[in-house]
Write a structure and sequence with these properties.
Number of helices: 10
Order of helices and strands: EEEHEEHEHHHEHEHEEHHH
CATH architecture: 3-Layer(aba) Sandwich
Number of strands: 10
Helix content: 25-40%
Radius of gyration: 19 Å
Strand order of the largest sheet: 6-7-8-3-9-10
CATH topology: Rossmann fold
CATH superfamily: P-loop containing nucleotide triphosphate hydrolases
């Protein structure tokens, strides 16, 4: 299908420590591509470079053949890249619906709040508001968040809040979504549901997924291809069955060798 994202020799340092050292990889359209590695391996740093939060010291990033290395985060979002965060970045004293509506901001011509008033019921703003709400309702149904629709995010269980954040990223209608530790804090049942949701995002919505995740069972079950990092360096890349037996990966995980090998 061709590549949607290409990363070439990506490097960045913080205080003299190399967080990423000439990391290269390519993600094909329609793929669930996972990035693994111990804490501090550079996984979230890659996401921060792709989404424009960090400016790399060296290397280049291409999205659909266009270089995006030094674009600002909002410019990258406009190109069709959305992301979630390791620590939930939601407006906790707003409802699920309001948080998801904020995810539509890039598509709003009348502004986030102007479209929310119905003073002129036949105005452009009101019609646009209805269209955006319809899209958000589709996402609520897709992620089975109906019971959380009108609840303040602060009152929701942690696993549900993670789904709301995923929904807000989907509200951007991206071509590529970056999921940073989406299963963190979830129980086994929630993780199982999440796995199906990620597969549906790819299969039903046609969105390419890049996943950073610690849960090896989830990674091995869901990934088409895996990149393994350690200390900011690429140590392996390949199919799940290749990665779980790779000696450098086992060595990097130290106490987790058995967990990786048996996943």
């Amino acid at each position: 299908m061709g590549s949607i994202l290409k990363v070439e020799d990506l490097s960045i340092s913080f205080g003299g420590i190399k967080a990423l050292n000439q990391v290269s990889f390519e993600v094909e359209k329609g793929m669930i591509y996972s990035i693994i590695g111990p804490n501090g391996a550079g996984k979230t740093t890659i996401f921060n470079c792709i989404s424009g939060i960090y400016r790399p010291d060296g290397g280049r990033i291409f999205f659909n053949g266009e270089e995006i290395t030094y674009l600002k985060p909002y410019q990258i979002a406009r190109k069709g890249i959305a992301r979630t965060f390791q620590n939930i970045e939601l407006f906790s004293h707003m409802t699920t619906m309001d948080n998801l509506m904020l995810g539509r901001h890039l598509h709003m011509k009348t502004g986030v709040w102007r479209g929310a008033t119905f003073i002129y019921k036949n105005s452009k703003a009101a019609k646009e508001e209805v269209a955006h709400r319809r899209k958000v309702e589709e996402i609520i149904d897709f992620l089975e968040l109906q019971s959380a629709r009108n609840h303040f995010v602060v009152n929701l269980p942690y696993g549900t809040r993670k789904l709301v954040e995923l929904g807000r990223a989907l509200a951007l209608e991206p071509e590529l979504i970056l999921l940073d530790e989406p299963s963190a804090g979830m129980n086994m049942e929630e993780k199982g549901d999440l796995m199906f949701s990620i597969q549906d995002i790819r299969d039903d919505l046609g969105i390419t997924v890049i996943l950073v995740e610690h849960d090896m069972n989830l990674i091995m079950d869901i990934s088409d291809r895996i990149l393994a990092l350690n200390y900011g360096t690429k140590i392996a890349e390949g199919l799940p069955e290749e990665i779980q037996k790779h000696p450098e990966v086992l060595k990097a995980y130290l106490g987790e060798e058995e967990k990786v090998a048996q996943s």
